[in-house]
């Protein structure tokens, strides 16, 4: 993983542009932006970072349409993140 730099760019978060630092961890970034609420389970329970190291799946979000653990992901330009991946509809 690379360290955050001074460079900033936008990613899409739930359909809205969000400014992030290059090299930042997606899980930590979302935790800060979303006050810890990264997604909802199918039963509607809120989830966020739990282990922060890829062991659990509480931080799963959709990244460019693919489920992934946010804590193991570095932000990338034009990334499209949907944080309510587990929510039933």
Report on this structure.
By secondary structure, the chain is mostly beta strands. It has one domain (8-82): Ubiquitin-like (UB roll) (Roll), CATH 3.10.20.30. The protein has one helix and seven strands; from the N terminus they run E-E-H-E-E-E-E-E. The chain has one helix at 26-33, and strands spanning 8-13, 16-21, 39-40, 46-47, 60-63, 66-69, 80-82. The strands form two sheets. It has a five-stranded mixed beta sheet with strand order 2-1-7-5-6, with no helix packed on it. A two-stranded antiparallel sheet has the order 3-4. The mean pLDDT is 85.
CATH superfamily: Beta-grasp domain
The CATH architecture is Roll
Q: Give the radius of gyration.
A: 12 Å
Strand content: 25-35%
Summarize the helices and strands and which ones pair or pack:
Elements: E1 8-13, E2 16-21, H1 26-33, E3 39-40, E4 46-47, E5 60-63, E6 66-69, E7 80-82
Parallel strand pairs: 1-7
Antiparallel strand pairs: 1-2, 3-4, 5-6, 5-7
Short descriptors:
89 residues, mainly beta, Ubiquitin-like (UB roll), five-stranded mixed sheet, two-stranded antiparallel sheet, 1 helix
In short:
This protein has 89 residues and is mainly β. It has one helix and seven strands. It has a single domain, classed as Ubiquitin-like (UB roll), CATH 3.10.20.
């Amino acid at each position: 993983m690379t360290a955050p730099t001074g460079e900033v760019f936008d990613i899409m978060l739930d359909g809205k542009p969000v400014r992030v630092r290059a090299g930042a961890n997606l899980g930590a970034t979302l935790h800060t932006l979303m006050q810890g609420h990264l997604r909802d389970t199918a039963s509607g329970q809120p989830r966020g970072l739990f282990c922060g190291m890829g062991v659990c799946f509480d931080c799963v979000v959709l990244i460019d349409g693919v489920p992934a653990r946010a804590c193991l992901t570095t932000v990338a330009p034009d990334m499209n993140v949907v944080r309510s991946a587990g929510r039933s509809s």
